[in-house]
Structure formats: C-alpha cells, structure tokens
Predict the 3D structure of the following.
Amino acid sequence: MAKRNGGTRKNGKSNGSTPPAEQQKQEDGWVPPTMQDAGQQRLPDGTFAPHEPTDQARKQVETMAGLGITDDDIAVILGISVDTLRQYYNEEKRRGTANAKVRIYMKTYQLALGGDRTMLIWWEKTRGGMSEKQQLDVNVTDTRTPEEIESEEQIRTGKILSIVDQVRKRKAGAA
C-alpha cells in the first residue's frame, strides 16, 4: 500500500505524487541545491544569513552564463535570489558570456575559412559589416499644391492621349 503525500509503493516505485526534486534524487542521485547548500543559513528569526560566494559557485555561474542559462534559472540552481546573484556574481556572468562568444566566433571563423558558404555569409553580415538591407532616402521637397499637381497630371494625360491618337492615325493610314 502506498504512503500518502508523496510516498512510495511497496514495490519501491513512485506513486506519482512524489515531488519532482525527490524523484530526481531517487532516480539519479542528484540532489537539488537548497539555501543551505549555497551557504545560506537560516537565522533564528527566520531570515537568511548574508550570502557568501564560494569558488565553486563562482565557477558554476560562469559556466551556466556561458551556456546561456537565464539569471532566474541560475539563481534557482544556486538557491539564491536573482538580486543576490546579480550582486555577488555579475563579473562571473559577464566573463562566462564573453568566453562563450569568443568560442562561437572562433568556430564560425574556422568554418568560414574552411569554405562553409553559410558561415562565410553569416560572418560577412555580422562581423564584416555587409547587409542585404537597402536604405531608401526619401526627401520630399515638393511645394506644389494639390491643385497644381492635378493640373500637371491632366496635361501629361492629355499629351499621352495625343500621342496615342497619332499612333492610331499612322496605323490607319499605313493599312
């Protein structure tokens, strides 16, 4: 018989109500970090002691930032708030992101030099300043009134109709 509130069945398998973190712990031995794991001690008044960054946490933040993991997710993994993450680990986040960019640019550059046409195009557009965008400079300095424009259009239309009539007359005379 299964226990209530997230217990296990007699056969040792989860009954489906075990919290996901506990299931992870049971399945692969990974234990999700908690505030205590991150060096956060709960004080008698219920608040947490000030965060003390460790070398291990700094390296984790740098690695996760380099992989593009969000601040929210990094904070959850470390068991701290996003504000605490930004206060104590900003340099690690910047370094991790910069290192990732360097590795990606190096790989892209190598692929481009190796003849990968897609990477050549990408490199030229992003790093070489090329673009497929066309800039259209529209500077309207026409000071004519709508009546003047309409009058000119009527004159042009009249000229066109006159030319059409001349062409018809020539064709009729040639036939």
